[in-house]
């Protein structure tokens, strides 16, 4: 071993790696994903969809507009989320609570997190004066419930809620049951479901019929026989 005498003051040092060792490169900083939160600034332009609600309880329709914000745009994590909601109508009877409802729903949208719970909460609201049937036999327990259905349709459209769809085999069985029922009781004459059908508790559609001693919904497939 050769010894070297140091005659000068040490002012600095460094550890020498092996000659062929590659210099370590710092890891690239990963950009954080943008998520919905109440501090997110409102863009100048938002994408929107408008849904029309016409009930037999009023001569004027309601127009529900839901505006969406695009998060993580132009990335594999791009997603569309509702940011605000507006409800307009010539009918001023419900103006006060409709305005309050839109402000509360918009606040929930901007808060972030899973806002899909709004749908079930609103669809469960019943009007003490009674609900009404929509075209196609769908029962609406209240105007609030129908607004909830409109929000649900929008959330399905942008991918927040995955729609439940019957399998081809299940749908084929329901179609066969309907043909058998109509052969016994007559055709529906342009109606969505047979006139003798009763309300289904699962999908709130007047589409449940008695076949082979079992109540079966021709809309959602719900069966009292399991």
Can you lay out the helices and strands and say which pair or pack?
Layout: E1 47-53, E2 62-71, E3 79-88, H1 95-111, H2 117-123, E4 132-133, E5 139-140, H3 143-157, H4 168-185, E6 198-199, E7 206-211, E8 214-217
Defining key terms:
alpha+beta, 226 residues, 4 helices, 8 strands, elongated
| Average of pLDDT | 84
User: What structural category do the secondary elements indicate?
Assistant: alpha+beta
- Beta-strand proportion: 15-25%
Helix/strand order:
EEEHHEEHHEEE
What does this structure look like?
By secondary structure, this protein is an alpha+beta fold. Helices cover 25% and strands 19% of the residues. The protein has four helices and eight strands, in the order βββααββααβββ. The strands form three sheets. A three-stranded antiparallel β-sheet has the order 1-2-3. A hairpin with a 5-residue loop joins strand 4 and strand 5. Helix 2 packs antiparallel against helix 3. The protein starts with 46 loop residues before the first strand and ends in a 9-residue tail after the last strand. The model has no long low-confidence stretch (mean pLDDT 84).
Summed up, what is this model?
The chain is α+β, with helices and mostly antiparallel strands and 226 residues long. It is 25% helix and 19% strand. The N and C termini lie far apart (89 Å).
């Amino acid at each position: 071993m050769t010894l070297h005498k140091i005659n000068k003051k040490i002012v600095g040092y460094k550890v020498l790696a092996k000659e062929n060792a590659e210099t370590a490169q710092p890891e690239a900083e990963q950009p954080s994903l943008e998520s919905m939160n109440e501090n997110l600034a409102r863009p100048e332009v938002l994408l929107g969809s408008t849904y029309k609600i016409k009930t037999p309880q009023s001569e004027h329709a309601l127009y529900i507009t839901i505006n969406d914000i695009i998060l993580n745009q132009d990335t594999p994590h791009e997603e569309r989320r509702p940011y605000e909601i507006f409800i307009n109508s010539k009918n001023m009877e419900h103006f006060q609570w409709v305005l309050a409802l839109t402000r509360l729903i918009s606040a929930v949208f901007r808060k972030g997190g899973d806002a899909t719970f709004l749908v079930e909460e609103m669809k469960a609201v019943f009007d003490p004066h009674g609900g009404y049937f929509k075209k196609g036999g769908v029962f609406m327990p209240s105007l609030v419930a129908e607004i909830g259905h409109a929000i649900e349709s929008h959330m399905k459209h942008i991918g927040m809620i995955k729609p439940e769809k019957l399998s081809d085999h299940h749908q084929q069985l329901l179609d066969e049951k309907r043909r058998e029922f109509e052969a016994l009781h007559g055709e529906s004459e342009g109606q969505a479901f047979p006139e003798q059908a009763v309300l289904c508790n699962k999908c709130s559609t007047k589409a449940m019929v008695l076949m082979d001693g079992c109540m079966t919904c021709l809309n959602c497939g719900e069966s009292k026989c399991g």
